[in-house]
């Protein structure tokens, strides 16, 4: 397992809303162009659906755990990803823990980690802006 995390002046509640609502993912992760079947509003345990990457590729996923306001976990292919939001004195920490079989995890650590680090920085920045309505 490896962890990507960023801490800053983000609003914890807004960060949770952005990270837990599929309809908001493209706001901070522009490569995610939609999702369906993972929960209305926030993700929900047991939901099976897809995230659409780059507007074309549907990636099957299952939500396996949710701790409202704190974390949620999904299984995406052979990888398990835990998304967390934690309060800090200055704002919040947002993190993604990624685990997978060793060769896949090694590839993700090299190829995907830099993107996740950038996306978490975007998430913190977006958490200081109002959510879109509708």
TrEMBL record:
Q: Which InterPro entries match?
A: Polyketide_cyclase/dehydratase, START-like_dom_sf
By its UniProt entry, which Pfam families does this protein fall under?
A: Polyketide_cyc2
Q: What protein is this chain from?
A: Unannotated protein
